[in-house]
Amino acid sequence: MRFSNSNSKNSKRLTSQLYFVQCKFLNFSPPFCLNSASSVSQQKSSEIEEESVSDNESPLSDEIFRASPKLGFYKLGDSTFSSIVENCANSCDFRWIEKIFYRMKREGRVFREKNFIVVFRAYGKAQLPEEAVMLFDRMVDEFGCRRTVRSFNSVLNVICRAGQFCRALEFYSYAVGSKNIMPNVLTFNLVIKAMCKLRLVDRAIELFREMTVRKCTPDAFSYCTLMDGLCKEDRIEEAVSLLDEMQIDGSFPSTVAFNVLINALCRKGDMARAAKMVDNMYFKGCVPNDVTYNTLIHGLCLKGKLDKAISLLYQMVSNRCQPNDVTYGTIINGLVKQQRAVDGIHLLVSMEERGHRPNEYVYSALLSGLFKQGRSEEAKRLWKEMIEKGCKPNNVVYSALIDGLCGDGKPEDAKEILSAMINAGLAPNAFTYSSLMKGYFRIGRAPEALLVWKEMESKNCIRNEVCYTVLIHGLCEDGRLKEAMMVWRHMLGRGYKPDTIAYSSLIHGFCKAGLIEQGLNVFNEMICLEVESQPDVITYNILFNGLCNNNRISRAIDLLNFMLDRGCDPDICTCNIFLKTVAEKLCPPQDGREFLDELLVRLCNRRRGLAASKIVQLMLLKCLPPKATTWEKVLQGCCKHKKMIAGIEDCWRNLLR
């Protein structure tokens, strides 16, 4: 008797129902009763609840196969076994599969390779690659089933999907070397993918060249996989040449292949060349898809070219390519980073009009952006609209709102939102509590900030470096240096490494208390550490201010020279500190023009044009113009020689007309 299996054209539900009928007829409980995750078991739970199968019970009734006549090479019921194996594999019930396999072996049934392939796929679904390898080894010796490249590729794919790429290469060498498996195109594609994931791109190229020797013609997937591996190693030129080779070999380039190259060029910031690659796509008859447009839009947003990104969005719509959530989310996030949150709101409205529902990350970006731009009322309105539209906020959105309210000087309102967050079943993280502590410190309520610190412990929230940094900074600002030092030692004792902000906060605390030498000691300790904790311009400005206020001007000048030698550029705050010092501390007082002029020359000599331009703006603003010789250095540093000469010649021509 034959029953419908899962490969028939019937619907999945009908197949499952027939399977239950089949199991009833064969007098054994279906394996779905052991797997509560199956949708069929939920539908039939009332029917199979009372049925149970012990480990010693035979999975199949003997009566159905008693005196089964042979039908050539196969016996009556072989297809029934195959159908049951497939259904067990679909439910990932490997215990029943083993029982059925041993029953088939005992009765001398014929094992077909497809019986094992469906089980291999089940092992892949269950993330059990080693079990798939073991079953592959048992196929011949234990079950007498001949292995081919189909079953080999199935196991290899399981290993790759599990992310065990080293194991995949080992299995490939083992099977091809000792099991006489002849690899095909799919085999090579999987192995090339594994090599590229392991960043063994040169070995992947060698294997790619070996394909033709083994009489396997690379397909589009082979080229795309290798091109992607080359691009991730920043070998874009080789990937482009591979695209040309692909066309010469007769493999028509696909949109996927172009997307790989466009993505690499956008990540590198070469948007002009990425645009040319899109033109090449059209020339080759490939139409850009949503991935192409999203990649270009993301690249433009990274370069800060938001207006071009929005234009590309409209072009995408005009070309009948529908923008998706990723498209809108990328542009909105880019607008927020450029402090254009209001434009982001307008785009959000357009997104909703086109039937796209913004996710929590879009809302969190907009909320943060509106608060940072001082538009707290609009941020609160957006929050209410979000709730009214049925979008449930997650940790990210709650944290963004709490941080915004604290930045707006309303930590009590933020505390209410925190309570609502906890009542909604969401656990605040260290960043959420850090925002609340920062909010209380900002309005001078240090005791409440310390209560938040203690609440973290009662809520079993793990404190991280950010929490310690916020607490140290707040205590130092509040003049509680001893308590800050206790927290500092506690932080080090827990194995956390202070970052630049933590070090700068502690140095600020010492300088504020008039303990300049202790601050310099912390600074010296800081410069001996990793790159991540090196002083920035804020750190130096804290020390400049402390040294100058204590009339240690020569030491401040030495520190400024040290700062320049280490590649850290001064900012406007640095200049204002020294301008105030030379005007108030020197006798006779100076206007600071000579000091700024010398600083400007030193920056120009080091080819630090951006910092030099900012100082020129400050000097002009304070009516302290640089010397003529200094202007010449500034122009030479900021302009390319040929363009500068051409500009001067244009000026002369205009004057002589």
Structure description:
Belongs to the PPR family. P subfamily. This is Pentatricopeptide repeat-containing protein. Keywords: Repeat. InterPro entries: PPR-containing_protein, PPR_rpt, TPR-like_helical_dom_sf. This protein has about 650 residues and is mainly α. Helices cover about 70% and strands about 0% of the residues. It has a two-stranded antiparallel sheet. Helix 12 (about 220-230) runs antiparallel to helix 13. The termini are far apart. The relative contact order is 0.02.
Defining traits:
657 residues, mainly alpha, two-stranded antiparallel ribbon, 36 helices, globular, TPR-like_helical_dom_sf
Structural class: mainly alpha
Number of helices: 36
What does the average pLDDT come to? Answer: 83
Strand content bin: under 5%
Overall 3D shape: globular
> Which strand order do you get reading across the main beta sheet?
1-2
Largest sheet: 2 strands, antiparallel
Please count the beta strands (DSSP E, at least 2 residues each): 2
Range of helix content: 55-70%
Straight-line distance between termini: 103 Å
InterPro entries: PPR-containing_protein, PPR_rpt, TPR-like_helical_dom_sf
Pfam families: PPR, PPR_2
Family: Belongs to the PPR family. P subfamily.
Organism: Nepenthes gracilis
